[in-house]
Amino acid sequence: MSQKESFSEPCSGTMSCLNAVCDPPHIAALEDLAQLRQRPVVLYSSSWSFSSGAVTILYDCLRQLGPQEALDVVLQCPGGDPALARRLAVLLRSFTQHLSILVLEQASSSATLLCLAADELLMSPLGCLSPIDPQVVAAVPASSDQGDPAATDVKRVGPHRIATEEVRMFGEMAQAWFGVGVSTEEKYSLLHLFCQRIFPTTLTAFYRADQEMRQVAEELLQYHEPDAAVRQRISDHLISGFASHHHMIHCKEAQSIGLPVRQATAEEERCLWRLLTWSQSYVGGVLVDPAAPGQWLRIRGVLASKGFVAHDVTPTDAPGGSPAVQPEKELTTAPRPVVSGWRRLLPSTSDQT
User: Fold this and answer.
1) Where are the domains positioned within the chain?
2) Which fold has domain 3-130+248-346?
């Protein structure tokens, strides 16, 4: 098949373009992209938040690739813990001098934070980043309250998560909407009201989360941006420059912020489209656990490179009337309980010989 033909070949079926379970060593779409850009490519596509297991499995993948002068990461992720995004970014930079991140469709929240470590960002017309203002998650009810419905109901009052920007802009909102908070006395009254509704150390936690995000953004931007004023302007805009955490930042908007982003070429876009259509049909699907016959797993994410495939899976019930994705080759994994998390799928011994 010629290079031109391989770019235009459509993705059909659940297991066609990137056959992660059936044939790990031969990942056609990634190999086409690697050939086009003349560097190794790692795919990280997940419908789930970053986890500590993702750091470990990425390290396993990068150890197999070895240090690279340039490395591409194709990224699809809703985000997660900023501390884990930082760990992933620092890990990637320890294996390459030039990091490019190709946004498959969305790299949101802390996934955008990860993108700040890249020397180059590539986005198709479908690709989006998002603001990185921290989201503080409300505590779940304590186990001692589980048997008390009244206590549980009280603890569930209020939003599940609050953005630090929503707290920081309370005074601005009070002044703009109600004309309150201009004088020093009014500002003290607003702070007193806040401390009656939100425990003071919780307010401090919001402040620290904001400071942490700014520090990490500054750190990751240093990999490619030498100007401190530019780094601060970019981080300030991504944290405080948007009215919603869910604002989708397209390519031109990312360029206007000052990020090192460009539009994918036609050939790059065709490769990304193949990976996206495959990912949409595969991630979220189910398969039978090769290490525990009869146990069904739901696929939450895939990390793949040449000769390497790992899945983020979670046990699930068998879907009614829906057959599992059955590997064409026998696969083995290290014996372990059936738990959620990342695991590497390996060819059986007979396939390796």
Assistant:
1) 3-130+248-346, 135-211
2) 2-enoyl-CoA Hydratase; Chain A, domain 1 (3.90.226)
By CB neighbour count within 10 A (0-12 exposed, 13-18 middle, 19+ buried), where does 200 fall?
Answer: exposed
User: Across residues 203-230, what is the average pLDDT?
Assistant: 95
Q: Is 129 helix (H, G, I), strand (E, B) or coil?
A: strand
Q: Which of 346, 345, 305, 309 is nearest to 30 (CA)?
A: 305
Which band of pLDDT confidence, cut at 50, 70 and 90, is reported for residue 101?
Answer: very high
The pLDDT tens digits for 135-179 are 887 665 544 444 444 444 445 556 678 888 888 888 888 888 988
Helix or strand (DSSP H, E) at 349: helix 349-352
- Determine the pLDDT at residue 140: 54
Please compute Rg for the chain using Cα positions: 23
Task: Taking residues 24-46, report their average pLDDT.
Answer: 86
Please give the DSSP secondary-structure letter assigned to residue 13: S
SS (H, E, C) 314-344: EEECCCCCCCCECCCCCEECCCCCCCCEEEE
Token reading at 281:
């049909």
Determine the Cα–Cα distance for residues 95 and 283; give it in Å rounded to an integer. Answer: 27
Query: How far, rounded to the nearest angstrom, does the alpha carbon of residue 342 sit from its chain's CA centroid?
Result: 14
CA distance 116 to 177: 35
Where residue 23 falls among pLDDT bands split at 50, 70, 90?
A: very low
Is the CB of residue 26 less than 8 Å from the CB of residue 18? no
Write down the pLDDT at residue 339.
Answer: 80
- What DSSP element (H or E) covers 212? helix 200-221
Task: Kindly write down the DSSP assignment for every residue of 134-166, as one continuous string.
Answer: -EEEPPPPPGGGTT-HHHHHHHT-S-SEEEHHH
The rounded mean pLDDT for the chain is 82
Predicted structure pTM score: 0.81
The token pair that represents 280 in the structure block: 């949409």
